[in-house]
Design brief:
12% strand; 11 helices; elongated; 5-stranded antiparallel β-sheet
C-alpha cells in the first residue's frame, strides 16, 4: 500500500471520528443529568391520563351555558389567539421551506444581445439556458435546519395552546368576578336601604329620649360610608365589564351576568403535584422545544466547519459557441461540482459556535426554571383552593352569628335600652364586612380552581 493511500485512509478515519464526536447528525435528546429533568423525561413519555383535571375538556369543566357561550366567542374572536395561530402558520411555512431545501434549485434565464462594429451588420447572439444546482447535505447543515424548523413549529403550537388556555381561564375568571361584584353590590345596596331605615329609627329614639344626637350622627355617617363603598364597587364592575369586552374583542359594554352565578368545581383530590401533569403544560413543552431548537442551532454552527458540496448543471440552446456565432444555434450542456472547505474565516466560525453553545445553555436554564415555576404555580393554586374551602366554611358560620347579633342588639336597644347604639352600629358593620368577605371568598375558591385548570394546561 502506498504512502498516499495510507494518508488518505488516516485522514478519512480522523474525519469520521471528528464527525461522530460532535454528534451533528444526532437528534435532540433532553439531558437527564439532574433529578428534575430525569423525572420530567420519564413523565413526558408516559401515557396521558384523560381523567386528570388539566386534561378535561373545558366544556366539562365550565358547564354554565352563558359562560360556555362567551368562551366560544372569545376563542373565535380574540386577537391574541388569532396571532398565535398565525405564528403556527408561519412555522409551518418555515418547516416546508427547510424541507424543500433538499431539492435541487432550477433557474430559467434566457438572454440575448446584439453587436455591430464599423457599421457592419448587427450580429445577434442568444442563450436559453436552464441552470440546476443541488447542495449535497454531507455534514448535516440542511438536516439540522429542518429539525430546528420542526422544533420551532412544535414550540409555536405549544404557545398557541398556552394562549388558548389563558383565554379560557381569563374569560371564566372575569365571568365570576363580574358575578361577585354584582352580588356585593346587591348586598351593599340592600344594606344601604336597611341602614337608611336605621337612621330614621335613631331619630325616633332620640325624640323619645332613648338616645342622644350622637347616635343619629353616627348612624347617618354609617349610612354615607356604605354609599361611598358602593361607588367603589361600581367602578370595579365597570372595569371588569371592559376586561370581558376586550377578551371578546368587542367595544366596551356591560355584560348581563347573574349575581348568583357560581362555579360548580369538579372534585379535586390530590396531595402533591405529579410531574406527569406538569409535563403536559404548554409553556413547559414550549421551553423544551426552544431548547431543542438551540441544540440544532449549535449543530448548524458545528457543521459550518465542514466542506459544502454543490453539484450544478447548465443546459439549453444557444448560437454562441465560444467566440463563434452559429446559426441556427446548438444545444449545450455543462456539468460542474464545487467543494467549499472553510480554512480561515477570521474567527467567525469559532465565535459563532461559542455563542450558540452559550445560547443552548441559556435555553437549558430557562427550561429548568419554567419547570420549577410551573410546579410553584400549581402548588399555589392548590393551596389557595384548599384554604378557600376552609375559609368559606368559617365565613358562613360567621355571617350566621352576625345576623343574630344584629337582630339581638337592635331588639335590646328598641325594647329596654340594654344595648347601646354603638353596639348596633358595630354589629351592622361587622355583618356587612363578613357578607362581602364571604362573596369574595367564594370567588377566590372559583378563581383558584380555574387557575389550577389553566396552570395544568387545560383547554386542549
Amino acid at each position: 500500500m502506498s504512502i498516499n493511500n495510507i494518508s488518505r485512509i488516516a485522514i478519512l478515519a480522523v474525519s469520521v471520528g471528528a464527525l461522530s464526536s460532535c454528534h451533528i447528525y444526532n437528534k435532540f435528546d433532553l439531558p437527564t443529568d439532574t433529578p428534575v429533568t430525569a423525572e420530567y423525561a420519564e413523565a413526558r413519555d408516559a401515557s396521558i391520563d384523560s381523567a386528570a383535571y388539566g386534561n378535561l375538556q373545558w366544556q366539562d369543566v365550565f358547564t354554565d351555558p352563558f359562560l360556555a357561550e362567551l368562551i366560544d366567542r372569545a376563542l373565535v374572536n380574540n386577537k391574541d389567539l388569532n396571532n398565535a395561530k398565525l405564528n403556527v402558520d408561519m412555522a409551518h411555512a418555515q418547516l416546508k421551506g427547510a424541507r424543500l431545501s433538499y431539492l435541487p434549485s432550477l433557474t430559467f434565464n434566457p438572454n440575448g444581445s446584439g453587436a455591430s462594429y464599423d457599421h457592419s451588420t448587427i450580429n445577434w447572439t442568444y442563450q436559453i439556458p436552464i441552470a440546476v444546482s443541488w447542495e449535497i447535505d454531507l455534514f448535516g447543515k440542511l438536516l439540522n435546519a429542518d429539525r430546528k424548523a420542526k422544533a420551532s413549529l412544535l414550540q409555536s403550537q405549544a404557545y398557541e395552546q398556552a394562549v388558548r388556555s389563558q383565554i379560557i381561564g381569563g374569560v371564566a375568571n372575569c365571568y365570576y368576578t363580574i358575578a361577585m361584584l354584582e352580588k356585593q353590590l346587591q348586598i351593599s345596596r340592600q344594606t344601604a336601604e336597611y341602614w337608611a331605615e336605621s337612621v330614621e329609627v335613631m331619630k325616633n329614639l332620640k325624640l323619645a329620649g332613648r338616645v342622644n344626637e350622637s347616635a343619629v350622627v353616627q348612624s347617618t355617617a354609617n349610612y354615607y360610608s356604605i354609599l361611598g363603598s358602593i361607588t367603589d364597587l361600581e367602578v370595579s364592575l365597570h372595569e371588569a365589564n371592559n376586561t370581558m369586552s376586550l377578551l371578546m374583542n368587542e367595544m366596551p359594554h356591560s355584560w348581563d351576568i347573574p349575581a348568583d352565578a357560581t362555579f360548580s368545581t369538579p372534585e379535586i383530590l390530590r396531595e402533591g403535584i405529579p410531574m406527569k401533569e406538569l409535563a403536559s403544560r404548554p409553556d413547559v413543552r414550549a421551553a423544551e422545544q426552544s431548547l431543542a431548537a438551540a441544540y440544532y442551532t449549535t449543530n448548524e454552527a458545528r457543521a459550518a466547519f465542514y466542506p459544502g458540496l454543490t453539484i450544478s448543471s447548465n443546459g439549453g440552446f444557444t448560437n454562441l459557441l465560444g467566440s463563434f456565432i452559429s446559426n441556427p444555434g446548438k444545444w449545450f450542456i455543462q456539468l460542474a461540482g464545487q467543494l467549499t472547505q472553510p480554512i480561515f474565516a477570521r474567527g467567525k466560525l469559532i465565535a459563532n459556535l461559542e455563542a450558540t453553545k452559550a445560547q443552548q445553555q441559556q435555553a437549558m436554564n430557562n427550561f429548568e426554571y419554567t419547570l420549577l415555576s410551573a410546579s410553584a404555580e400549581v402548588s399555589d393554586a392548590l393551596m389557595l383552593y384548599t384554604k378557600s374551602q376552609e375559609k368559606a366554611a368559617f365565613l358562613e358560620k360567621q355571617v350566621e352569628n352576625l345576623e343574630k347579633s344584629v337582630e339581638y342588639t337592635e331588639e335590646l336597644l328598641s325594647l329596654n335600652g340594654s344595648s347601646t347604639y354603638l353596639e348596633v352600629l358595630t354589629a351592622q358593620q361587622s355583618l356587612l364586612s363578613a357578607q362581602i368577605s364571604q362573596v369574595a371568598c367564594e370567588n377566590a375558591k372559583a378563581r383558584a380552581a380555574i387557575n389550577l385548570y389553566q396552570s395544568l394546561g387545560g383547554g386542549r
